[in-house]
Specification:
With 334 residues, the protein is an alpha/beta fold. The protein is built from twelve helices and nine strands. Helix 1 packs across helix 3. This is Membrane dipeptidase.
């Protein structure tokens, strides 16, 4: 537990990619990792989403790369961390009750897929990822793939027909959808198509900081209207156009999202280990108490608790799949 006593849910980090590129690192306490077990415990992080992201140096994304990072999660995060209390993997709605009612020494991990390039257009691979523990899928990184255009793709296209099939299958299985990195047209197509609330795991307000990766007001309102979630991210250039960014610079983003009805739809999505430049005093997962203290100077404790923990946990408790169901049998093979 952190020194503030506040539990943290963080919906995005790239520790797995860093472990992939530096296999000598230990998840338990390697200082090169912004998110490691020691820093999670120091910061009170009881739920950490760990993204499977395929670095561009790997070349064209392949399913073997996805499986490789899932195996890395098993060995580095689940298994090798067991000596220090372990990391349990969140899979089912029923497990969220433990998160809500118990303050445990062992944190939980949530496996996410950042871009479906490595599924190679094969929707059966999506089912395999589900069986292997993946519970959140973002269709793209910044560029185009077989499912959709990313936000940096100049043509700005939306979902492909195969991408629309993927959205429908995710809805069927109970796989949660993430629109961070998705093109603006793709965002609206997914919003119209998805029957389940979706998230933007690590995006801020475009109105406050006009970076292309941030969300415009109508996008935030659309997520709120569907009872989705917006993950406040700590990427400095998504926060403020300045050489030095402080924790206080996150407050205008919070204000803007709340002004659009998102007070109970805001959560954290740090992007730790995916950035080399950091917000001052918010350099790694162990710094969450500093963020908590500043938020409590400006906002009611119940709101702060919701942003750092409650809103994310409520979403998972309502929208993760129920354990024991055979989801794949509910559809025809595609």
């Amino acid at each position: 537990m952190s020194r503030t006593g506040q539990r943290i849910a963080d919906f995005h980090c790239d520790a797995l990619s860093k472990l992939l590129m530096k296999p000598e690192l230990s998840f338990e306490k390697a200082s090169e990792l912004d998110v490691n077990l020691e820093r999670m415990q120091e910061g009170g992080v009881q739920l950490q989403a760990l993204a499977i992201y395929l670095p561009e140096v790997l070349g064209r994304g392949k399913f073997e790369h996805v499986m490789g990072q899932l195996e890395l999660y098993r060995k580095k995060v689940e298994h090798s961390a067991q000596r220090s209390g372990g990391v349990k993997t969140l899979l089912w709605r029923e497990q969220v009750a433990n998160l809500r009612t118990k303050v445990e020494t062992a944190p939980w991990g949530l496996i996410t897929l950042e871009g479906v390039d490595g599924l190679e257009g094969n929707l059966f691979y999506l089912e395999l990822c589900f069986q292997m523990g993946v519970r959140v899928v973002g269709l793209t990184w910044n560029h185009a793939n077989w499912a959709a255009d990313g936000i940096m793709e100049k043509r700005g296209a939306g979902l492909t027909e195969k991408g629309k099939e993927l959205v429908r299958l995710c809805n069927q299985m109970g796989m949660l959808l993430d629109v961070s990195h998705l093109s603006e047209k793709g965002f609206w197509e997914l919003a119209d198509l998805s029957e389940r609330p979706f998230i933007a795991s690590h995006s801020n307000s475009y109105n406050v900081c006009p970076h292309i990766r941030n969300l415009k007001d109508d996008q935030i309102q659309a997520i709120v209207a569907r009872d989705g979630r917006v993950g406040l991210t700590f990427v400095p250039w998504f926060v403020k156009e300045a050489d030095e960014v402080r924790i206080e610079d996150l407050l205008p983003h919070i204000e803007q999202i709340c002004s659009l009805g998102g007070a109970h739809h805001l959560m954290m999505g740090s992007d730790f280990d995916g950035i080399s430049t950091k917000i001052q005093d918010l350099e790694h997962a162990g710094c969450y108490p500093k963020l908590t203290e500043i938020l409590l100077k400006h906002y009611d404790e119940a709101l702060v608790h919701g942003w750092l923990w409650g809103n994310a946990i409520r979403y998972l408790g309502e929208h993760l799949p129920e354990g024991g169901l055979v989801h794949a049998s509910k559809r025809k093979r595609m």
